[in-house]
Amino acid sequence: MGNILLLAGTNRPGANALRIARVVQGLYEEAGIKVDLYSLHKMPLEIFDPRCYAAKPECWLPIQEMVVEARGLHIITPEYNGSFPGVLKYFIDMLKFPVSFVSKPVALIGEASGTWGAVHAVEQLQQVFSYRNAHIFPQRVFIPKVNACFDTEGRFSDAEILQRLRNQAEGFARFCEILNPELDEVTSGSASA
Ligand SMILES: Cc1cc2nc3c(=O)[nH]c(=O)nc-3n(C[C@H](O)[C@H](O)[C@H](O)COP(=O)(O)O)c2cc1C
Fold first, then answer.
1. How far apart are the first and last CA of the chain?
2. What residues contact residue 45 under an 8 Å CB cut-off, 6+ apart?
3. Predicted local distance difference test score (pLDDT) of residue 193
4. How far apart are the CA of 144 and the centre of ligand 1, in A?
5. CATH number of 4-187
6. Low-confidence spans in the chain with pLDDT less than 70
7. Ligand 1: distance of its center to the CA of 112 in Å?
8. Cβ contacts of 47-51, under 8 Å, gap ≥ 24
9. pLDDT for the residue 191
10. Is there a contact between 99 and 187 (Cβ–Cβ < 8 Å)?
11. Atom in ligand 1 nearest the alpha carbon of residue 9
């Protein structure tokens, strides 16, 4: 099985989602936990061809495998019009089904310029992953007024939220360890979806 996979949940250039994903990556690494990071701005253009619902292009196959192999998904979502970005739903829809989701540990971070910190986006994502029988890590982190959380040098400077992110990352790593034997059965094909 692979590492925990951090997903920066938008393809918007210069996204805060990716900046936060890098902060969280640093927190995992400080704790000695290996993680991978994928940002949706790297999605190949070929995957946006409508024919991809039927057949995925060669370049997409490693991305699908990366998700299947991940021991947990740690997703950072912005709030776009009271929801998570459409491209994140499209990314999810292009994954292998159902093996990408069943028994997969999933942790969620929301970030927004508004005061609610993407609570709607996170809760809507919870619905999607619960529907697909993933295991949602209960400790979510919401980051309101996200642009104010970075200092002029681009460092994450909100100590309280940073501590929440640290607690979430360390807790999620333990959550994955507990649930990974079940996930192993799914990915090796010995459990029914
Ligand atoms: C298409 C779009 C829709 C947005 N809708 C909301 C919203 O509903 N609520 C909110 O608080 N902020 C909204 N924002 C602001 C974003 O939450 C804020 O810019 C956030 O940092 C964007 O995340 P990103 O930098 O990861 O793309 C929106 C931004 C975009 C681009």
1. 18
2. none
3. 46
4. 11
5. 3.40.50.360
6. 190-193
7. 5
8. 47/94, 48/90
9. 52
10. yes
11. 26
Which ligand 1 atom is the nearest neighbour of the CA of 114? 11
Please give the distance, rounded to the nearest whole angstrom, from the Cα atom of residue 83 to the centre of ligand 1.
9
What is the pTM (predicted TM-score) of this model?
A: 0.96
Nearest CA to ligand 1 atom 10: 114
Give the tokens for residue 30.
């400080």
- Rounded to whole angstroms, the Cα distance separating 175 from 167 reads 12
Q: Which residues, judged by CB distance below 6 Å to any ligand atom, belong to the binding site of ligand 1? A: 10, 12, 15-17, 78-82, 111-114, 146
Question: pLDDT digits over 52-76, tens only?
Answer: 999 999 999 999 999 999 999 999 9
> For residue 26, what pLDDT is reported?
98
- The contacts of residue 181 (CB under 8 Å, 6+ apart) are none
Residue nearest to atom 14 of ligand 1 (CA): 80
In the chain, where the domains are located = 4-187
Residues 23, 7: Cα–Cα separation, whole Å: 12
Task: Tell how far the Cα of 178 is from the centroid of ligand 1, in angstroms.
Answer: 34
Q: Dihedral angle at the C-alpha atoms of 115, 162, 71, 30, nearest 10 degrees?
A: 160
